[in-house]
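hey so u asked for the seq, here:
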Amino acid sequence: MPLTPGQAAHWKPRIASTTTNKDRASALWDLARKLAGDDDAKWADLVRLLSGWSERNGL
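ran it, structure tokens below
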């Protein structure tokens, strides 16, 4: 599900304002949930992606 211009305007500065990997992870998990919507398969794919990123960054 692509972001609307209003959603992109919300998420871009939120992610850009993160200063630590922990903050970034929180924002990315929130964004992933928004992107997946009600699609469990998309959510599962995003969980695998972000879980790997989180592990590689010690979170």
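The longest helix spans residues 40-56. The CA atoms of residues 14 and 55 lie 22 Å apart.
lmk if thats what u needed
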